[in-house]
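Please fill in the sequence for the structure shown.

STRUCTURE ENCODING:
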Protein backbone atom coordinates (compact mmCIF):
# COMPACT_ATOMS: atom_id res chain seq x y z
CA UNK A 1 0.00 0.00 0.00
CA UNK A 2 1.03 3.60 -0.40
CA UNK A 3 3.06 4.82 2.62
CA UNK A 4 0.95 6.71 5.13
CA UNK A 5 2.60 10.12 5.12
CA UNK A 6 0.93 13.48 5.64
CA UNK A 7 2.32 15.35 2.66
CA UNK A 8 0.25 18.37 1.81
CA UNK A 9 -1.67 21.11 3.49
CA UNK A 10 -2.37 23.93 1.11
CA UNK A 11 -4.58 26.94 0.79
CA UNK A 12 -6.36 26.65 -2.52
CA UNK A 13 -7.78 30.14 -2.81
CA UNK A 14 -6.12 32.82 -4.88
CA UNK A 15 -7.53 35.44 -2.51
CA UNK A 16 -9.00 35.13 0.94
CA UNK A 17 -12.77 35.54 1.10
CA UNK A 18 -15.20 35.28 3.97
CA UNK A 19 -17.17 32.08 4.18
CA UNK A 20 -20.20 33.55 5.90
CA UNK A 21 -22.91 31.59 7.68
CA UNK A 22 -22.64 29.26 10.62
CA UNK A 23 -23.43 25.89 9.05
CA UNK A 24 -25.17 24.07 6.24
CA UNK A 25 -28.46 25.19 4.83
CA UNK A 26 -31.12 22.57 4.32
CA UNK A 27 -30.26 20.43 1.28
CA UNK A 28 -31.46 21.44 -2.15
CA UNK A 29 -31.57 19.49 -5.38
CA UNK A 30 -28.76 19.32 -7.93
CA UNK A 31 -28.92 22.30 -10.25
CA UNK A 32 -29.38 20.64 -13.60
CA UNK A 33 -31.07 18.09 -12.33
CA UNK A 34 -32.36 15.11 -10.91
CA UNK A 35 -35.88 13.92 -11.48
CA UNK A 36 -37.99 13.16 -8.48
CA UNK A 37 -38.03 14.79 -5.07
CA UNK A 38 -35.15 16.95 -3.78
CA UNK A 39 -32.93 15.57 -1.04
CA UNK A 40 -34.60 15.16 2.29
CA UNK A 41 -33.73 17.27 5.30
CA UNK A 42 -30.75 16.46 7.45
CA UNK A 43 -32.09 14.23 10.19
CA UNK A 44 -30.61 12.60 13.26
CA UNK A 45 -29.37 9.09 12.48
CA UNK A 46 -27.72 6.20 14.27
CA UNK A 47 -24.13 5.20 13.56
CA UNK A 48 -22.76 1.65 13.58
CA UNK A 49 -21.78 0.10 16.93
CA UNK A 50 -18.49 1.52 18.21
CA UNK A 51 -18.93 4.85 16.42
CA UNK A 52 -20.14 7.15 19.17
CA UNK A 53 -21.04 10.61 17.91
CA UNK A 54 -24.05 12.72 17.15
CA UNK A 55 -24.79 12.45 13.46
CA UNK A 56 -27.20 13.86 10.91
CA UNK A 57 -27.86 12.05 7.65
CA UNK A 58 -29.40 12.84 4.30
CA UNK A 59 -29.79 11.20 0.90
CA UNK A 60 -28.67 13.35 -2.04
CA UNK A 61 -29.94 11.98 -5.39
CA UNK A 62 -27.64 12.33 -8.40
CA UNK A 63 -27.83 11.10 -11.97
CA UNK A 64 -25.76 8.04 -12.79
CA UNK A 65 -24.91 9.73 -16.10
CA UNK A 66 -25.29 13.49 -16.05
CA UNK A 67 -25.56 13.50 -19.84
CA UNK A 68 -28.77 11.45 -19.55
CA UNK A 69 -31.41 13.42 -17.63
CA UNK A 70 -33.80 10.48 -17.98
CA UNK A 71 -31.28 7.92 -16.76
CA UNK A 72 -30.98 6.07 -13.44
CA UNK A 73 -30.63 7.98 -10.18
CA UNK A 74 -28.10 7.11 -7.48
CA UNK A 75 -29.10 7.95 -3.89
CA UNK A 76 -25.88 9.15 -2.25
CA UNK A 77 -25.72 8.51 1.47
CA UNK A 78 -24.29 11.52 3.31
CA UNK A 79 -23.43 11.65 7.01
CA UNK A 80 -22.67 14.98 8.71
CA UNK A 81 -20.97 14.95 12.11
CA UNK A 82 -21.43 18.42 13.63
CA UNK A 83 -18.51 20.21 15.26
CA UNK A 84 -18.31 19.57 18.98
CA UNK A 85 -17.26 23.07 20.06
CA UNK A 86 -19.70 25.94 20.39
CA UNK A 87 -17.45 28.37 18.47
CA UNK A 88 -17.14 26.15 15.39
CA UNK A 89 -15.92 27.33 11.99
CA UNK A 90 -18.43 27.50 9.11
CA UNK A 91 -16.41 25.46 6.60
CA UNK A 92 -16.58 21.67 7.09
CA UNK A 93 -14.10 18.89 6.31
CA UNK A 94 -15.09 16.47 3.54
CA UNK A 95 -13.39 13.15 4.29
CA UNK A 96 -12.46 10.81 1.40
CA UNK A 97 -11.50 7.25 2.22
CA UNK A 98 -9.41 4.73 0.31
CA UNK A 99 -9.94 1.80 -1.98
CA UNK A 100 -11.30 2.54 -4.42
CA UNK A 101 -14.29 0.61 -3.18
CA UNK A 102 -14.45 1.55 0.48
CA UNK A 103 -17.44 3.48 1.75
CA UNK A 104 -16.71 6.60 3.77
CA UNK A 105 -19.18 5.42 6.41
CA UNK A 106 -17.31 2.12 6.87
CA UNK A 107 -14.82 2.02 9.73
CA UNK A 108 -16.44 5.03 11.34
CA UNK A 109 -14.98 4.32 14.76
CA UNK A 110 -11.46 4.75 13.39
CA UNK A 111 -12.41 7.85 11.43
CA UNK A 112 -13.96 9.45 14.49
CA UNK A 113 -10.82 8.79 16.53
CA UNK A 114 -8.57 10.14 13.78
CA UNK A 115 -10.58 13.33 13.30
CA UNK A 116 -11.49 14.10 16.93
CA UNK A 117 -9.30 17.21 17.01
CA UNK A 118 -10.63 18.46 13.70
CA UNK A 119 -14.26 17.94 14.70
CA UNK A 120 -13.82 20.22 17.67
CA UNK A 121 -13.87 23.14 15.25
CA UNK A 122 -15.40 21.84 12.04
CA UNK A 123 -18.18 19.55 10.95
CA UNK A 124 -17.12 16.34 9.21
CA UNK A 125 -18.95 15.28 6.03
CA UNK A 126 -18.78 11.67 4.85
CA UNK A 127 -20.13 10.56 1.46
CA UNK A 128 -20.50 6.94 0.44
CA UNK A 129 -18.99 7.21 -3.03
CA UNK A 130 -21.26 5.92 -5.77
CA UNK A 131 -21.05 2.14 -5.96
CA UNK A 132 -20.10 1.77 -2.28
CA UNK A 133 -21.82 1.56 1.09
CA UNK A 134 -25.43 2.67 0.81
CA UNK A 135 -24.94 4.59 -2.46
CA UNK A 136 -26.13 1.92 -4.91
CA UNK A 137 -23.36 -0.52 -4.00
CA UNK A 138 -21.87 -2.64 -6.77
CA UNK A 139 -21.19 -5.96 -5.08
CA UNK A 140 -19.39 -8.98 -6.49
CA UNK A 141 -19.22 -12.44 -4.95
CA UNK A 142 -15.48 -13.01 -5.37
CA UNK A 143 -12.96 -15.34 -3.73
CA UNK A 144 -11.16 -14.17 -0.62
CA UNK A 145 -10.01 -10.64 -1.50
CA UNK A 146 -6.41 -10.97 -0.35
CA UNK A 147 -5.88 -14.33 -2.03
CA UNK A 148 -7.59 -13.10 -5.19
CA UNK A 149 -5.33 -10.03 -5.34
CA UNK A 150 -2.19 -12.11 -4.84
CA UNK A 151 -3.38 -14.50 -7.53
CA UNK A 152 -4.03 -11.61 -9.91
CA UNK A 153 -0.56 -10.15 -9.32
CA UNK A 154 1.10 -13.53 -9.91
CA UNK A 155 -1.00 -14.35 -12.95
CA UNK A 156 -2.86 -17.21 -11.23
CA UNK A 157 -6.20 -15.41 -10.94
CA UNK A 158 -8.29 -16.31 -14.02
CA UNK A 159 -10.86 -13.58 -13.45
CA UNK A 160 -13.92 -15.74 -14.17
CA UNK A 161 -15.74 -14.55 -11.05
CA UNK A 162 -14.95 -10.94 -11.84
CA UNK A 163 -16.13 -11.29 -15.45
CA UNK A 164 -19.32 -12.96 -14.28
CA UNK A 165 -19.99 -10.12 -11.86
CA UNK A 166 -19.37 -7.55 -14.58
CA UNK A 167 -21.81 -9.31 -16.88
CA UNK A 168 -24.45 -9.41 -14.13
CA UNK A 169 -24.11 -5.70 -13.35
CA UNK A 170 -24.36 -4.80 -17.03
CA UNK A 171 -27.45 -6.99 -17.36
CA UNK A 172 -28.96 -5.08 -14.44
CA UNK A 173 -28.50 -1.86 -16.38
CA UNK A 174 -25.51 -0.48 -14.47
CA UNK A 175 -23.34 1.85 -16.59
CA UNK A 176 -19.93 0.87 -15.24
CA UNK A 177 -18.28 3.70 -17.19
CA UNK A 178 -19.94 6.14 -14.81
CA UNK A 179 -18.28 4.89 -11.63
CA UNK A 180 -15.07 6.88 -11.94
CA UNK A 181 -13.15 9.46 -9.93
CA UNK A 182 -14.47 12.20 -12.21
CA UNK A 183 -18.06 11.16 -11.52
CA UNK A 184 -17.32 10.97 -7.79
CA UNK A 185 -16.05 14.56 -7.88
CA UNK A 186 -19.24 15.69 -9.59
CA UNK A 187 -21.11 13.99 -6.75
CA UNK A 188 -19.02 15.78 -4.11
CA UNK A 189 -19.84 19.12 -5.71
CA UNK A 190 -23.53 18.16 -5.79
CA UNK A 191 -23.40 17.38 -2.07
CA UNK A 192 -21.59 20.64 -1.30
CA UNK A 193 -24.29 22.59 -3.13
CA UNK A 194 -27.07 20.57 -1.51
CA UNK A 195 -25.70 21.28 1.97
CA UNK A 196 -25.10 24.94 1.13
CA UNK A 197 -21.43 25.25 2.10
CA UNK A 198 -19.63 28.10 0.23
CA UNK A 199 -16.21 26.52 0.78
CA UNK A 200 -14.97 23.20 2.14
CA UNK A 201 -11.80 21.59 3.44
CA UNK A 202 -10.65 18.35 1.80
CA UNK A 203 -9.08 15.42 3.66
CA UNK A 204 -8.07 12.46 1.49
CA UNK A 205 -6.54 9.12 2.51
CA UNK A 206 -4.86 6.76 0.00
CA UNK A 207 -7.19 6.55 -3.03
CA UNK A 208 -9.22 9.35 -1.45
CA UNK A 209 -6.32 11.70 -2.24
CA UNK A 210 -7.15 11.28 -5.93
CA UNK A 211 -10.69 12.48 -5.32
CA UNK A 212 -9.43 15.40 -3.25
CA UNK A 213 -6.84 16.45 -5.86
CA UNK A 214 -9.35 16.24 -8.69
CA UNK A 215 -11.89 18.28 -6.74
CA UNK A 216 -9.20 20.86 -5.95
CA UNK A 217 -8.21 21.04 -9.62
CA UNK A 218 -11.77 21.57 -10.81
CA UNK A 219 -13.15 23.64 -7.94
CA UNK A 220 -10.31 25.72 -6.42
CA UNK A 221 -12.68 28.55 -5.60
CA UNK A 222 -14.72 26.17 -3.44
CA UNK A 223 -11.71 24.71 -1.61
CA UNK A 224 -10.25 26.27 1.50
CA UNK A 225 -7.58 23.65 2.31
CA UNK A 226 -6.59 20.19 1.15
CA UNK A 227 -4.83 17.61 3.31
CA UNK A 228 -3.52 14.47 1.61
CA UNK A 229 -2.28 11.43 3.54
CA UNK A 230 -0.73 8.43 1.81
CA UNK A 231 -0.87 10.08 -1.61
CA UNK A 232 -2.12 7.95 -4.47
CA UNK A 233 -0.87 10.00 -7.41
CA UNK A 234 -3.22 10.46 -10.38
CA UNK A 235 -0.69 8.82 -12.71
CA UNK A 236 -0.17 5.80 -10.44
CA UNK A 237 -1.28 2.50 -11.99
CA UNK A 238 -2.06 0.67 -8.78
CA UNK A 239 -1.75 -2.28 -8.29
CA UNK A 240 0.42 -2.82 -11.37
CA UNK A 241 3.34 -1.02 -9.72
CA UNK A 242 3.28 -2.90 -6.40
CA UNK A 243 6.03 -5.38 -7.27
CA UNK A 244 8.30 -2.71 -8.77
CA UNK A 245 7.83 -0.32 -5.86
CA UNK A 246 8.33 -3.07 -3.26
CA UNK A 247 11.60 -4.12 -4.90
CA UNK A 248 12.82 -0.53 -5.03
CA UNK A 249 11.97 -0.02 -1.35
CA UNK A 250 13.90 -3.17 -0.44
CA UNK A 251 16.91 -2.16 -2.54
CA UNK A 252 17.03 1.29 -0.96
CA UNK A 253 16.76 -0.20 2.53
CA UNK A 254 19.65 -2.61 1.90
CA UNK A 255 21.73 0.18 0.35
CA UNK A 256 21.15 2.38 3.40
CA UNK A 257 22.16 -0.50 5.68
CA UNK A 258 25.37 -0.96 3.71
CA UNK A 259 26.26 2.70 4.34
CA UNK A 260 25.54 2.51 8.08
CA UNK A 261 28.35 0.92 10.10
CA UNK A 262 26.14 -0.42 12.89
CA UNK A 263 23.57 -1.83 10.49
CA UNK A 264 26.24 -3.40 8.28
CA UNK A 265 27.84 -5.03 11.33
CA UNK A 266 24.50 -6.32 12.64
CA UNK A 267 23.25 -7.62 9.28
CA UNK A 268 26.29 -8.38 7.15
CA UNK A 269 24.52 -10.94 4.97
CA UNK A 270 21.60 -8.60 4.22
CA UNK A 271 23.88 -5.72 3.39
CA UNK A 272 25.81 -7.74 0.83
CA UNK A 273 22.90 -9.70 -0.69
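FILLED IN BY: designer on duty
SEQUENCE:
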Amino acid sequence: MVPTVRCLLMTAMAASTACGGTGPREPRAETHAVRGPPPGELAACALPPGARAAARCVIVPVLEDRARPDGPIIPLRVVVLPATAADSAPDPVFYFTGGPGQAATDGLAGTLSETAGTRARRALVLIDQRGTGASRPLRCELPDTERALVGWLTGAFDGDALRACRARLLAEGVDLARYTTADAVDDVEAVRRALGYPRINLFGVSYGTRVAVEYLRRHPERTRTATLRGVHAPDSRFPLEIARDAQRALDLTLAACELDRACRASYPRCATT
